[in-house]
Amino acid sequence: MKKLLILLSMLFCFTVHAQTETLNWYMDGNVYTTTQCESGNDILLPTTPTKRGYTFKGWASYQPIEYLESTGTQYIDTGVVPNLSDTKVNVVFMVKTYPYDEFLFGAGSGITGSRYWALLSGSLIQVGYGSRYYNIYNNLSLASIYKYDISTNNTEIIFKLTSLDNGDVVVLFNAPLESKDSISTISLFSTNSVQTTAKAFSGRIYSAQIYDNNILVRDFIPVLDPDGVPCMLDRVEGKFYYNAGTGQFIAGPVIGE
Fold first, then answer.
1. Cα(125)–Cα(136) distance, rounded to whole angstroms?
2. Which H or E run contains 96?
3. Strand 215-224, strand 230-234: pairing
4. 42, 118, 141, 198: least CB-packed within 10 angstroms?
5. CA dihedral sign, ordered 146, 77, 98, 198
6. Please, where are the H alpha helices in 113-176?
7. Neighbours of 59 (CB within 10 A)
8. Vertex 197 angle, CA 199 and 235, to 5°
9. How far apart are CA 104 and CA 215, in angstroms?
10. What does the pLDDT profile of the chain (257 residues) look like in tens digits?
């Protein structure tokens, strides 16, 4: 029997409806069961889940929040090393103030080498991919929410930027597909190189997903952990990802309050 703690892969959250609370209990990122509880009463725990090769250590709680906001020194290391031919990334974000060369996310060097990143500079969004970089859009609006997508087909990598304020695709850009690994893991709010982490994005991220060969390997949502610390919850692993920089993320409003 593996002696692995799976406390963080067993999670629940609740939504308040009048005097009744609906509790969703999660295991490995999926709803294990749902229970009801009257406000002010004790919470009854569901049947203990089982998973072959693991020992259950308990349940952990979290509160979903609308976003994480970095002041420019906080970032999340996702632990995923991208392959340029089949890694896909989606990030929902907001620019609060026009940045100067801040990385929304990325892996690899910001200047040379193998690139896989999105750079924000003023109203410009620039993407680095493989041995090249491209200016794909130069009209980002402050306080607007965008969704940035990277996907691939057999011959091209596709960059798409969508305004979630109105649902319009504001840019769709294609580049030749390259096939090689990056030199580092993907970070949210920054980009990693071998020796250093580049300037972090001082804005908001609402969600992020990473796919490897069309398989969802990270599904990040912003949350407050059981101690109230702002972080990202990966719903695939059922694991909290914390700030790998300095200071602390600013937490958005708790969803449902």
1. 6
2. none
3. antiparallel
4. 42
5. negative
6. none
7. 19
8. 95
9. 22
10. 333 333 333 444 444 444 777 787 877 667 788 888 887 777 888 888 888 877 777 777 889 999 999 999 999 999 999 888 889 999 999 999 998 889 999 987 555 567 889 999 999 999 988 888 899 999 999 999 999 999 988 889 999 999 999 999 999 999 998 877 667 899 999 987 544 556 789 999 999 999 998 999 999 999 999 899 999 999 888 889 999 999 999 999 998 65
Helix or strand or coil: residue 7?
Answer: helix
d(CA 256, CA 61): 15
Which secondary structure element, helix H or strand E, spans residue 89, and what is its range? Answer: strand 87-94
Torsion of CA 218, 220, 224, 229, to 10 degrees: 70
Pairing of strands 87-94, 76-77: unpaired
Place of tokens 């109230």: 228
Residue 229 burial by Cβ neighbours in a 10 Å radius (0-12, 13-18, 19+): middle
Q: What are phi and psi of 82, to 5 degrees?
A: -80, 145
Say if CB 61 and CB 45 are below 8 A apart.
no
Sequence-distant (6+) residues with CB within 8 A of 83 are 179, 180, 181, 182, 212, 213
> Residue 9 and residue 3: Cα distance in Å, rounded?
14
Strand 60-61 and strand 10-17: the pairing is parallel
- Give, in words, the CATH class of 68-251: mainly beta
